[in-house]
Specification:
Blueprint (H helix, E strand, L loop, with lengths): L2 H9 L5 H9 L4 E2 L4 E2 L3 H5 L5 E2 L5 H15 L2 E4 L3 H10 L4 E3 L4 E4 L7 E8 L5 H13 L2 E6 L7 H5 L2 H5 L3 E6 L5 H6 L6 E5 L11 H8 L6 E3 L5 H20 L1
Parallel strand pairs: 3-4, 7-8, 7-9, 9-10, 10-11
Antiparallel strand pairs: 1-2, 4-6, 5-6
């Protein structure tokens, strides 16, 4: 339960002071031997802990997934394989897997998503990283508009969607090759742009390094850059920016 939820239950008489006190006395992490679950992360940062699935032993992933689900009623994992999904699904049939982004999750039904973040890709090959960003932002309560395959080699495609993009509270630009999309968007919108270089490209792209350097050296203002293929980091940051924008508008 969240802190506010506990306080509301105490106020309504659904939870005793002793029961609430026991919850707050718990140590801020759960020791599992091979992992230390950050059970207070949502209290500190507003967002719960997420699982990076790649490389984890099956037994470890299964227990971590289960404990986070039991704690929050939902759980979100990135970079999961199909084999990991099949293993998780046997114990948790409600688990959902997206083979494009590698997202593995159980999400609460009826979740309200507010604001708007626009997720744009230069090409179709950038979609896996873009979907990781989009689904991360959605999991954290953000409404997402997907605008794919609007790279600079056919810039008229991007311009056709500018009304939608300019209405967003934050824009995520996902691009490989030379990574020019972020600079173009940075010069067309008055909101923050989060640039995500991808490892898409031929030899001289150096597995995304060329796109990364282009984005870091952009002459456009208002651009922040995350690591190569780090869709999760972009989605998380966009959700934070969107939350601030929604909060400001509601005041």
């Amino acid at each position: 339960m969240e802190t506010r939820e506990i306080l509301k239950k105490v106020q309504a008489g659904e939870l005793s002071l002793d029961e609430a006190e026991l919850y707050f006395r718990r140590q801020p992490f759960e020791e599992m031997g091979y992992a230390k679950l950050d059970t207070h992360r949502k209290i500190r940062s507003g967002f719960p802990e997420v699982i990076f699935c790649s490389g984890k032993a099956d037994s470890h992933l299964l227990r971590i997934f289960g404990r986070l689900y039991e704690q929050d009623g939902e759980v979100f994992g990135t970079r999961a394989s199909k084999e990991q999904y099949e293993m998780i699904r046997k114990e948790y049939p409600a688990a959902v897997y997206d083979p494009i982004s590698g997202i593995l999750k159980i999400e609460r039904e009826g979740k309200v998503r507010t604001g708007k973040v626009a997720v744009c890709t230069a090409g179709t090959a950038d979609i896996p990283v873009a979907e990781e960003a989009a689904q991360t932002a959605e999991y954290f309560g953000t409404a997402v508009e997907r605008i794919f395959d609007v790279g600079v080699s056919g810039i008229h495609r991007l311009l056709a969607y500018m009304n939608t993009i300019q209405q967003a509270n934050c824009v995520i630009a996902v691009a490989g090759m030379e990574g020019a999309l972020a600079s173009v968007l940075g010069g067309l919108v008055d909101k923050p742009v989060i640039a995500v270089p991808t490892s898409v490209g031929y030899g001289a792209s150096m597995h995304g390094l060329s796109a990364l350097l282009t984005m870091i050296n952009s002459c456009a203002n208002g651009i922040a850059v995350v690591n190569i293929d780090n869709g999760y980091g972009a989605g998380y940051l966009a959700a934070q920016i969107n939350r601030l924008a929604v909060s400001q508008k509601s005041e």
